[in-house]
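Look over this record as teaching material.
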Amino acid sequence: MAPLTGPTRKPPAGEDPLGEAIRHETLGEMAATLGRLNTELVTALARLEGARDRLLAAGEDGDDAAGLVERWQHRHRIACEALWNVIIQRELCGLRRHDAFLDSERVPRSVRILMGPASLARPAPDPRHSAPRPVSSQDPSKS
């Protein structure tokens, strides 16, 4: 086999159509994944709030209060994992500031603190004694 002759050069990023196509496809997949994970987070937060409302409506002496607390704690763990997944994907997409996002989605403080593996290591707070979800600063009805 004869050695290569002449200079070989790697085309600059803007001149590599295959590389650009792959980068474009990758960015599209990252954005789609972030959208899907955001939807999962919103669903998990709504279910968590619903479980809390049912628990508070039942009262502390309700027949199924223990079951409702357990259900809320399960929903809390799911919300913590969903938030963890969204934060990781936001970081992968280059989004580094999360406070405005967390406020706009009204993520409870306990979910923010215990997101990810921490949600399995520590028990969730008692929902009957924790503050309700914060009101979004973006909420037009509160202005």
In short: The CA atoms of residues 17 and 118 lie 43 Å apart.
